[in-house]
Design goal:
heterodimer; A: mainly alpha; about 0% strand; globular; B: mainly alpha; 2 strands; about 65% helix
């Protein structure tokens, strides 16, 4: 039960940090972004595993549950945190520096998944992973900027 | 890993998804606006996310309780079959808000929606959108619908109370 316990612990740390940091988004915006990140994470994992077989996931029960934690908590909340940082009023170098740190953390976690045999890199490597996570962060940040500005001065007919 | 394939044609299951999407989109556009654009987007997203969440938990290893559409690989139609849930969740929140359903009547509302959902799923199974395996029964979906709808009511109340609060 090591991988499951470790991933649960990582998820717990991620949630603690997420709860502490100032998010700068409303609850509606955060739910929307979390759902969007969740959908993209699931889609990417499924395509890389089931369709392309580039990053096959483990087929054992414990590992599968550990990967659920990773797919629904660890990765989405870290991406969401990076979007919060990118969207904040911090100085540019701080925003990009902190986002790079989160990206590094995601890459380190990839190594953990590899150590535990939760994933296998076939036609894939850590550089591609870093590119994917980086692109993912910037893409979601773009969506966040659009969504925050959406319907300013909007309507509510209740 | 063996890929399960049921058929390669554009038939009943694909038409069901396309027609449901079309009718659902029309419904969302034609209904008088009731929420802000952001809240509307979120309520649409609820259906898509929960569809993804449960379908990609129950239809993958270790359980693999069902195959969605024509094959066990992820296809464009599978993606659209999740998008199909967007108008459905919107309608759930819309009617809940429209009828000003009180908390004490919420379980009844949830039960009605769970039964309607089971009916739709039964029809979708008949048309080949879902292919059950490993002993999965539609009664299991009923329990999931009850849980999902209950969480939606909780989320609705959270959004109504704190939706515009910045954290």
């Amino acid at each position: 039960m090591v991988s499951l316990a470790v991933l649960a612990l990582v998820a717990c740390f991620v949630m603690i940090v997420f709860a502490i940091i100032p998010k700068g988004f409303t609850l509606t915006e955060m739910f929307f972004l979390y759902f969007l990140i969740g959908i993209f994470t699931i889609t990417l994992f499924t395509i890389l595993d089931v369709n392309l077989h580039w990053v096959p996931l483990t087929r054992n029960i414990e590992g599968s549950f550990a990967m659920y934690i990773c797919r629904f908590i660890v990765i989405p909340f870290e991406i969401l945190m990076s979007v919060c940082v990118l969207h904040s009023h911090l100085k540019t170098r701080w925003r990009w520096g902190l986002s790079a740190a989160i990206l590094l953390l995601l890459c380190v976690e990839d190594r953990i998944y590899l150590w535990f045999g939760l994933i296998v890199f076939r036609r894939w490597n850590e550089f591609y992973s870093a590119l994917m996570y980086g692109g993912f962060m910037v893409f979601i940040w773009g969506i966040a900027r659009w969504f925050v500005g959406l319907g300013r001065g909007g309507f509510k007919n209740t | 890993m063996n890929v399960i394939r049921y058929d390669d044609h554009f038939n009943a299951n694909e038409w069901f998804i396309v027609i449901s999407l079309f009718v659902g989109t029309l419904l969302v556009l034609l209904l008088p606006a009731r929420f802000t654009i952001k809240t509307t987007s979120l309520y649409l997203m609820f259906g898509v996310f929960f569809g993804f969440f449960f379908d990609h938990t129950l239809s993958v290893f270790p359980v693999s309780f069902y195959v969605i559409n024509d094959s066990s690989t992820f296809e464009v139609m599978d993606f659209l079959s999740h998008v199909m849930y967007a108008p459905y969740s919107y309608l759930f929140f819309y009617l809940y808000d429209f009828f000003h359903i009180k908390l004490r009547f919420s379980p009844m509302y949830i039960l009605v929606w769970a039964l309607v959902s089971v009916g739709f799923e039964r029809f979708a199974v008949y048309l080949g959108v879902f292919h059950y395996q490993h002993g999965y029964k539609i009664y299991y979906s009923f329990v999931i619908y009850l849980l999902v709808k209950s969480s939606w009511v909780t989320f609705y109340r959270m959004i109504q109370s704190y939706g515009e609060k910045q954290f």
